[in-house]
Amino acid sequence: MQRLERKNYLDWLVKWKDRQIIKVVTGVRRCGKSTLFAIYQDYLRAQGVEPQQIIAINFEDLDFEDLTDYKTLYQYVKARLLPDRMNYIFLDEIQHVKGYEKAVDSLFLRENCDLYLTGSNGYFLSGELATLLTGRYVELSMMPLSFKEFCAGLADDSVSLNAKFERYIRSGSFPYVLRYGYGEQEAREYMRGIYNTVLLNDIVKRLNVADVNMLEAITRFAMHNIGNRTSPTTIANAMTSQGRKIDPKTVDRYLRGLTDSLLFYEARRYNIKGKRLLASMSKYYVCDVALRSLLVRSQDSDIGHILENVVYLELKRRYPEVYVGQYGTDGEVDFVAIQDGAPVYYQVAQTTLDEQVLARELAPLRQIRDNYPKYLLTMDEAFGEMNYEGIQKRNVLKWMLE
Description:
By secondary structure, this protein is of the alpha/beta class. Helices cover 43% and strands 19% of the residues. It has an eight-stranded mixed sheet with strand order 8-7-10-11-12-13-15-14. It is built from 17 helices and 15 strands. It is globular, with a radius of gyration of 22 Å. The model has no long low-confidence stretch (mean pLDDT 92). The protein has helices at 7-16, 33-46, 70-80, 100-108, 123-126, 128-132, 147-153, 161-171, 175-179, 184-207, 212-224, 232-241, 248-260, 289-292, 303-318, 355-367, 396-400; strands at residues 22-26, 54-58, 87-92, 113-119, 137-141, 264-267, 269-271, 276-277, 283-286, 321-327, 331-339, 342-348, 374-378, 386-388, 391-395.
């Protein structure tokens, strides 16, 4: 059972080591945050950090249940601090501690404390911690395995790239699925547990949802419509047409719950000409496309949306900002990724071997008159790498391995 080294994430922690700022790692449940902390602690020990300099607490471990009061937690950590050396403090799943931000703030004031926190949802960053510690923390948004990480962890190297991708989208990208070699059915059972925990613990309890069936119906709708523009009003109308009346404001609240739990990501629309964000009709993408099969019976025609979802997640790993591009009234580019103010445009299609499909996919990119990079990503192996007047066509699987 090989432990996957999440190098990019480890490098991020190393970069911020010993700086007077709180390191916060967020991510959906079971995406590997605790393992990342274990890998980083191994790194610290290899660099000469003594074991007594590391204070690690996982609040999902019953051994630390008594520390879920912020005062008790503070006293516990304070009693173990070494006065003459740096102390590396890891507080895993900190959202279980009521009033934790008070303990964190007090520890932050000590110059010999290097603080690392994790949380399985975005709630704790949208609340007291963000208010109290504005400008005093940096956030690492962690995700399940990328396709490149997934391939690196596969034992059988003789499998074709397409077969690896098929397994990736069917069995899922959660690290334990790969680490323990789960088959498709075992992976589904494992992900069902994650899904139920997120829905019941991170959304229902937090939002005091009375109608859990309605929440699940909206979740199923979002899963079915990945890659389609939608809004709370659109979803409310769809529910009403099925005889299940719900207010758009309630739908919006549930969508916020789904994104704050990091089960979904919202991709807002970006006006390419005006260089501004648009307020309505976002797209939603699930954190792992294999989770979708728990609620939606997949069809062959879905592969385009599934591929789009996978590319969106990959772009989220590579760029700080990723949007859906809007050009004029009806032109749409799948994604605009922005780094340091400079856009890169991406169009995604299963195949463009048909000339009409190729012309249709290239059209939105050709409308954009600037000189920033433009890519067309497809599954095509024949004619997979082409150049159309500056628009670079790439094989999407090879692109994800870069």
